[in-house]
Amino acid sequence: MKYNFSDVVNRMKPSEIRELNKMASSPGIISLGGGMPSPETFPIKELTEIMEFVMKKNSDLALQYGNTLGINPVREQISKMLEKTEGIKCNMENIIVNSGSQQGLYELGTVLANPGDTVITEEPTYVGAVSAFSANGLKMEGIPVDHNGMKVELLEEKIKKLILEGRKPRFIYVIPTFQNPTGYTMPVERRKVLIEISKKYDVPLVEDNPYGQLRYYGEPVPCIRSMTGGEDVIYLGTFSKVMTPGLRLGYTIAPEPVMEKFNLIKQALDLATNSFSQYVAYEYIKRGIIYKQVELNKQIYRKKRDAIVNALKANMSDISTFSEPDGGMFVWVTVDKNVDTKQMIPLAIKNGVAYVSGQAFTTNGTQKSSMRLNFTFGSVEQLEEGIKRIRKTINESA
Ligand SMILES: Cc1ncc(COP(=O)(O)O)c(C=O)c1O
């Protein structure tokens, strides 16, 4: 059989991270590549108890199809949790529960844009967003980030230019807190500018916030959705970093008209998100376990964040600059030398370490001398050794 594949899939490239994960799972390789939480943060005892409870008390509903937008008691708990943790005020009617926030990103691309349309992202941006938007046939225009996130002063000019070209962007996608891949956080002033520009040009603003609760140092910065004027912001959240990614639960908050369209697209995608996972999350929030777990995760990750930053200071400060994030899961390293981090990957694997190249987070092949390092998965010893191996690889590739 000769298969004729769609233009959309023919244009899509395999994710460097997925390819890398295959190599990085070989014994002896320290992986700083994937974006995985540490299994030591999984609340196994609590989840086992909850799962047994759900099966005993609620199996009729937990094993049944659920509402397309999500199970109402779960949506209600999410709304209460977000008010407590992020200061977000929203009704449960404005929440859709998805199979991870990754599915929320795909839905956005389908609901708010047509194939061939343009959206604005940060540059670099989350590789999964590139994949979700590409799968919808969208073009991405990146606005560079600095230590304070997206350079919003460039955004207005970009929007004006795109409008003149007849390519008005369909939405602006940002990860303002502990950005993936850079770890940078956008201060309040820039967040205000984003709200203003979004309103002025009538371009929806999308805030993706998987890492907001994982703050190890410093004062929290309010999420954009909670700020004055932020009521129309479309907000994505996830249980992946505060419960487990394996249960595949995320959510999107959006105004009523957008929610109606999410409802239609979600029916086409999978009818509804896993009911069992949702009932587990319901108990997990209602019993308050989520708040204790976040504190525990922070203790574990703070040590690892310090370990990787200290190892970078000891081994890499003479040849690179790197972020020193106050939270999240990633450090962004830019090597001074004219190193192509993508080309260097085979040598790094030979030396027993894996990372993701900067290019994987762009749509235009920039960020060649950068790399993203994950610090949540490996042990402190592995992080320290991993950085030494990266330094060795850079020396050898020079
Ligand atoms: C910025 C960002 N958005 C979305 C996701 C997807 O998360 P999930 O589908 O597990 O909820 C991730 C995962 O790493 C992420 O970093």
Question: How would you portray this structure in words?
Answer:
- The protein is of the alpha/beta class and 398 residues long.
- It folds into two domains: 13-35 and 292-397, Alpha-Beta Complex (Aspartate Aminotransferase, domain 1); 45-287, 3-Layer(aba) Sandwich (Aspartate Aminotransferase, domain 2).
- It has helices at residues 7-11, 16-24, 44-62, 72-86, 100-112, 127-135, 152-164, 188-201, 256-270, 275-286, 289-316, 345-350, 380-397; strands at 30-31, 95-98, 118-123, 139-146, 149-150, 172-174, 205-208, 234-238, 250-253, 320-322, 330-335, 353-354, 356-357, 370-374.
- The strands form three sheets. An eight-stranded mixed β-sheet has the order 2-9-8-7-6-3-4-5, sandwiched between helices. Strands 10-11-14-13 form a four-stranded antiparallel β-sheet. A two-stranded parallel ribbon has the order 1-12.
- Helix 6 (127-135) links the parallel strand 3 (118-123) and strand 4.
- Pyridoxal-5'-phosphate binds next to helix 5.
- One of its GO terms (biological process) is alpha-amino acid metabolic process.
- It holds the Pfam family Aminotran_1_2.
- GO terms for molecular function: pyridoxal phosphate binding; transaminase activity.
- Residues 57-390 form the Aminotransferase class I/classII large domain.
